[in-house]
Design goal:
7 strands; 10 helices; 254 residues; 47% helix; 7-stranded mixed β-sheet
C-alpha cells in the first residue's frame, strides 16, 4: 500500500484537546513507552473520524501495525466520548437560549438485509437513529446515544428522557411532524394535506419550516465527519463515535 502526505480541515484546538487528554491518560495509567507520541496518536484518531480512513490505511500512514492503529484510535475515541455533554448539561445550555431545535437523523451503517432492527423504512436503508438538539442558529448542543434505525424519532426522544426534560424545564423547542404529541414545550407544524389547510395554518407551517431549516446545519456539521456517512464498525461503538465528534465540534466552537 502506498502512503502520501495529506491534511485535515480541522483547527489545532481539536488536536491540542485530544493530545492533552491522551497525555493525562498515559500518566494516569503509568504508560512508559509507545510507538507514537500523544500528538501523533491524536492526529491518527482525528484522521479516522474526519476522513473515515480505515485502520489499514492509518497503520501504513503512521508506520504502526494494524492492531496498534485500532487500539490507539479506540483509546482516543473513548477519551473524547467521556467529555461529551450529558443531557443535564445540555439543558443548562438550552435554558439560556430563546428556543432549541430538535431533529433526528439516520447514520448509515453497513448491514445485510436480514438485520431488520437497523432498517429504517423512512430512509429505506440500514442505520442508527440519533437525536440532535441545536440552538436557534443551528449550532450543536447535544447529540443522543445511537439507537437502531427502526426506532421512530419520537420514541427515540422519549427513551432518552429528552421530551420529559424539555417539558419539565419549559424549554421551547421546534420539531417536525414526527414529534406530534411530544408535549406543550415542543412546537410542531399543523398536520394535513397542504391543499386542505387554511391560509393561517399554511402561514404558520411556512414560518415553522424556516426556523427548523436552521437545524439542518447541524446535520451537515455531523456529516462533515466522513466516518459518520457510512459506519462499518460494531453498532455498540457508534454512540462513543458520535460523542467523540460532538466533543470536538463543541471544542472548535468555543
Amino acid at each position: 500500500m502506498l502512503a502520501y502526505p495529506s491534511g485535515l480541515d480541522l483547527s489545532t484546538s481539536a488536536l491540542r484537546l485530544l493530545r492533552r487528554e491522551l497525555t493525562a491518560r498515559r500518566r494516569r495509567i503509568g504508560t512508559r513507552w509507545r510507538r507514537l507520541t500523544c500528538g501523533r496518536q491524536a492526529l491518527m484518531a482525528l484522521a479516522h473520524l474526519r476522513c473515515g480512513h480505515t485502520f489499514a490505511q492509518l497503520a501504513v500512514g503512521f508506520g504502526v501495525g494494524l492492531a496498534t492503529a485500532h487500539r490507539y484510535v479506540t483509546e482516543a475515541v473513548d477519551v473524547l466520548a467521556v467529555l461529551a455533554p450529558t443531557l443535564q448539561q445540555a439543558m443548562a445550555v438550552a435554558a439560556g437560549k430563546a428556543f432549541v431545535i430538535l431533529d433526528g437523523t439516520l447514520l448509515p451503517i453497513d448491514r445485510i438485509a436480514a438485520d431488520r432492527p437497523f432498517y429504517s423504512g423512512k430512509h429505506r436503508k440500514h442505520g442508527m437513529n440519533v437525536q440532535v438538539l441545536t440552538d436557534p442558529f443551528g449550532k450543536l448542543i447535544w447529540v443522543s446515544p445511537a439507537l437502531a434505525g427502526a426506532v421512530h424519532d419520537i420514541r427515540a426522544a422519549r427513551s432518552h428522557g429528552l421530551l420529559d426534560t424539555l417539558n419539565n424545564a419549559d424549554i421551547r423547542c421546534w420539531a417536525d411532524k414526527a414529534y406530534q404529541g411530544s408535549g406543550p414545550a415542543v412546537r410542531v407544524p399543523f398536520r394535513g394535506r397542504w391543499s386542505k389547510l387554511s391560509v393561517g395554518k399554511k402561514a404558520v407551517n411556512r414560518a415553522h419550516a424556516k426556523i427548523r431549516a436552521l437545524g439542518e446545519q447541524a446535520m451537515a456539521t455531523l456529516k462533515s465527519w466522513r466516518l459518520l456517512r457510512k459506519l462499518r464498525c460494531s453498532t455498540t461503538r457508534i454512540t462513543d463515535l458520535v460523542k467523540a465528534v460532538i466533543t470536538l465540534e463543541l471544542t472548535a466552537s468555543t
